[in-house]
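Teaching note: in complex prediction, the entire set of molecules is handled at once rather than each chain in isolation. The prompt given to students was simply: 'Predict the structure of this complex.' The entities are:
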Amino acid sequence: MESESKNLLELHDIEAGYGRAALVLRGLSVVVPPSSVVCLVGPNGAGKSTVLKVASGMLVPRSGSIRIDGRDVTGDGPQRMLQNGLAHVLQGHSVFREMTVGENVMLGAFTVSDEKVVRERVEFVQNLFPIVGERWKQLAGLLSGGQQKQVEFARSLMVSPKVVLLDEPSMGLDPKTTAKVFEQVARMRDAGTAVLLVEQNARRALETADIGCVLDLGRVHISGPAAELLADPTLADLYLGGQPSSGTDASTRS
Amino acid sequence: MSASLLLQAVILGVLLGGLYALLAAGLTLYFGIMRVVMIAHAAFLVLAAYLAWWINREMGIDPLLSLVVTVPLFFVIGVLIQRLLVSRLKPLTLTMMSVLLTFAVALVIEGGLGFLFTGTQRRIPLSYASDSLNLFGAQVPVVKLIAFGLAALSLALLFLLLKYTRFGQALRATIQHPEAARLVGINTDRVAGYGFGLGLATAAIGGTALSLDATIYPSLHWHWIGPLMAIIVVGGLGSIPGAAIAALVLGVAQSLLQLPMGPTWAQTVFYIALFLTLMFRPQGFFGGRLAKRF
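The expected output is the structure of the full assembly:
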């Protein structure tokens, strides 16, 4: 009962896979509380991206349930999930390259019909990501990788989502830009949007996250406050590429 | 070769290129949205030309008025083809299989036209068929000007539709990143259906424009599909402005080459351009940055 009111998004005992191939997720459960960043880490093939695809309705789970604000939304497709309050930012670059930054952001509000709300959201995302306003009329494909990511974030926030799903936001970015992207993730949370994050760059992501979940073989192996996971030496060895050497230059071994 | 003859060839080439641009626009849309190679596009052009001719013969009205019927009709047929046939192809082999599928559709249309109207060559008797205007000293047939005007108007409308309407935005987003388009709430299946319909609607206009100035027969589409395919490859697959530029360039080239080589050999310019493109710039000459631009 309590968990229903506390958590924005709950995935419970999810089993999912692609086509007739073996299951990727085997009884996975994850919860996202309000105004928090939850980070899924784990080895390649653990099913991290699949969790997000299930949550955003791109992949219908074979069993298990998805709840948003306590309401069962299992089986809803991408459009319905968007209306339910989940926005998904894909891995790699997913801006509409040959459209302007403005057109990209406005397409984020494709399902929003109230023009006043759209105007407010444009202002909101321009404040959160100043680059969006500065480059409004430029082709999105001409921006740098980090800037494109911000356009994607801004696009996903146009529907005022309850939870944003971020798939490997630092992929292909240099360390400096990566740091900036995680800064933006924290700003999104501080602006009131919860984030479910999947990252290869586990240590860096856990530094930003509030809650960490270690995925292995399709289920959550360990979960807890991100800071605790970071401090756990065994875990660091197994999943985070060894102990941090010292201070800030800790990065994952790939 | 006199200067006025050259000027005439250039003007006729531009007019022809404009028509090519319209005829190729549909092919670009199908490929851009769905990676479908639509062999039957030219067959639909010929079907539209036949409908214009038939309506003119039965009711005695101007072939341009047939557009009122053929444009919506072709749009609906396009949506149905996408929904009932193309969407059943497996994504992995879609492009290859679409060649076979639409080849079959082309044969059905050709066979149907032959069955209904026989293989006899037809031409719409127009009161203004032999009228011409004097443009900068060159004699330009009125029918070619009408066809060009129709093409320019349709392409301008297509541009405005794609650039400024909600549907156009959704269509471009679907072309550029289908997965991201779904995630912003665009029903990409529906958009693909309407996109196919839009492509076929351009065939209705193109076929009617063609009927003003051409002798038509059921197998005429084989004569057209090669040059049109060459145009979209030279222009950069999926790029509407690219196809339009390639169409104009090749139209003018064909028209100029007709002077020394005659019409049959001038037609080879499409295939030479195609070979050169595949050899030196397989992504097309206007593909890169310009592709998917609107």
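Point out the following to students. The CA atoms of residues 207 and 270 of chain B lie 20 Å apart. Chain B touches chain A at residues 166, 169-170, 172-173, 176-177, 179-187, 291-294 (CB under 8 Å).
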